[in-house]
Design goal:
The structure is a single chain. The protein is an alpha+beta fold and 219 residues long. The protein has a domain at 62-213. 34% of the residues lie in helices and 21% in strands. The chain is built from six helices and nine strands; from the N terminus they run E-E-H-E-H-E-H-H-E-E-E-E-E-H-H. The chain has helices spanning 42-51, 71-76, 86-95, 97-100, 169-190, 192-213, and strands at 28-31, 34-40, 65-69, 78-79, 131-136, 139-144, 147-152, 155-162, 165-166. The strands form three sheets. The chain has a four-stranded antiparallel beta sheet. It has a three-stranded antiparallel beta sheet with strand order 4-7-6. Strands 1-2 form a two-stranded antiparallel ribbon. Strand 6 and strand 7 form a beta hairpin. Helix 5 (169-190) runs antiparallel to helix 6 (192-213). The mean pLDDT is 90.
Length: 219
Amino acid sequence: MRPDLPPLPDRMKGQPEDARGFPVPWFVAWKDGAPIFQAADARKWAKAVKEKRCWLCGKTLGVHHAFVIGPMCGVNRVTAEPPSHRECAEYALKACPFLSSPAAKRTTHKIPEEMRRNPGGEMIERNPGVSLLWVTKSWKPFRVANGHLIDIGPATECVFYREGRLATKDEALEAVSTGLPLLQAIAEEGGELAVRELGRQVAAFSQMLDATFDGEGKR
């Protein structure tokens, strides 16, 4: 494995590596013996949700489930990816090139045509620069017009990361403020009730963010 990566958590040891020395997460789709990091195996998604398996190592989850999400997913508590073990999720936040580099962009041109599929709902195409480790005891999948999403339960712990380290409050606030106009535009398409609900969600998330960084909650 690449020497510049953090130590693998025990549950991820034994995962295959790609030619560059990166461990291949369990969810990744393969073609012709090579991993396609940008594509998730749809069968793994169904298995992870049904059997409560870790999105990154594939092993059974315990009581606490950790989601790796962006700030806007933290606001509306909706995501397309199933949860992981906390230590697996923390490793991804430190080692994944996209999650640990604010300048990184999504590269979809490497995905074979037959593997191209958008996640359910409306995806915000940006790298927010800050990611959340959202630990919860509850979540549930639900169907939308173009697929499936996951409703994330209340956080028992929420940690903000940037560049593989703990983010500062200013960095977290900037990531939220630059993403909210995009979420607001989506809500406005849904009408007045959707806009009101977003306002409620933003207020709740802001309160949690303040508590997290001001020492009243877990960071």
